[in-house]
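Re: the request from the purification team.
They wanted to know what the chain is likely to look like in 3D before they choose a buffer screen. I agreed to run a prediction and write the result into the notebook, where they can find it.
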Amino acid sequence: MLRALYDWTLSLAARKTAEIWLALIAFVESSIFLIPADVLYLPMALARPERAYRYAMVATVASVLGGIAGYFLGYLAYDALAKPILVFYGKLDEFEQLRQCTGEDTIMLLLVTSGLAHLPPIKVVTILAGVVQISFGFFVLSCIIARGARFMALAWAMRRYGEPIRHFIEKRLGLIAGLAAAILIGLYFAAKYLGGGALTAC
């Protein structure tokens, strides 16, 4: 199913309504959809490099709005709507582990890493942010910065390097971004430990 969903998302890039689909996918990936908007964004930016930054802006705005929707799913309707979504995607255990083992400040950090590198998955962290009711203002700001940085970086790479960088991004960028996010998390906890702060433990 996942491969079929991936191929379907990729096929949307050839449609005249691709920009609308990009906005829709970027919106729903933040709370209910499994395939990241990057899959659709890359071929669109490659086909129309002069529109790469425009597409990045569309994806960023839609992703932030989707994140807000995910936040309120967790805030207002966790048991009724958000929990069944997490169960459907097999993310409930991951969600509950994050919920029990992280404090508010750690969730704020995960908002940045999920926006930059899908680590943990965006939908898990946005719903969690609503469940624990972190600052809504900070939530929106982190979404704008992290998700905007991701799409703008992709736009820059596609404009500068074109087709060759697309294959690199599809095969390696997830790993590199994941490692960078892991390093960021490690540095955060190291700084907090060395600074004498108390870490939230399971």
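For the purification team: The first helix runs from residue 2 to 11.
Please add any questions underneath this entry.
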